[in-house]
Amino acid sequence: MFRSALQRLENKWRSYRHRFVPWMLLNLSKNEKTLRQVTERCKDKLVPDVEVSESLLRLFRLLVLSHGADHRHILAAQTHLPPQVSRGDQQHGGSPQEVMFQSLGFSIDRRPSSLPQAGTGVFVTKGFVPKGATVAMYPGTVYQPYEPILLQSIRNPFVFRCIDGVLVDGNDRSISRMVFRSCSGRDRLGPFLMSDTSWLTDAPLNPLAVGQYVNNCSNERAANVCYQEFDLPDRFPIELRQFLPNVNYSQDTQRPLRCVVLVSLRDITAGEELFSNYYTIVH
Fold this sequence. Notes:
It is built from eight helices and 13 strands. Strands 1, 4, 8, 9, 11 and 13 form a six-stranded mixed sheet that branches. The chain has helices at 2-16, 21-26, 49-66, 72-76, 87-91, 96-104, 150-153, 174-186; strands at 35-38, 106-112, 120-129, 134-138, 140-143, 159-161, 167-169, 215-216, 225-231, 246-248, 258-264, 268-269, 275-281. It has a single domain, classed as Beta-clip-like. The model is unreliable at 12-38 and 70-92 (pLDDT under 50). Strand 2 (106-112) and strand 3 form a beta hairpin. Helix content is 27%, strand content 23%.
């Protein structure tokens, strides 16, 4: 009985460690080639923020026309749509994955990981991902370094630590789930939603919002995506913020909303699983 319980614990840890940041930090010497070293936060960017923003805008504009319950009329008169989007596409939206394929040229989804005992992973299901593309977003509640997260972090493998100490809790269960829903409801601005809670379900409206399920690479599985921090610009359209899978823990946070995206390190084809590397600061 004890051996059986020990085996279950070991299996759970093997899955947990693929996302557990302290485990990564304690194993630097064994997995140095899985790390991407940066000297400061501004050096972590493989692509300019403007390119990340453009990708999000392209997807969100098409999502609001095909799935957005609110403010569709605001975008109807705009011309900032992908060239391949026809009026028929605007009126008859497919699934979020289909909209993603129309706007970005590829789609991703969650599936059982190809890594033994790693649980869920994220795969490119259709299309082609060019190097430097925004492939996914890391959803969750954003905590500043001084804000409390102890209770939410207990047995939570989905807490992502940014270079400057900002934390993103991407857990879609338990107390983390309740905190995100509460903060999202608090920040609603009249008829405008400021964030998206659908990533907490099995059917996220924003198909990018599955980045917390991207497994870390290993010595055997090289990384094909990496994390990149992205502060939401003030000019980001208010009617498109309903698709953002992030929200600040405190309403009075005096800094832009921190988002974390995953950017492709190379061309990625349909059927491949996404594997990320973790950056470390070097001085």
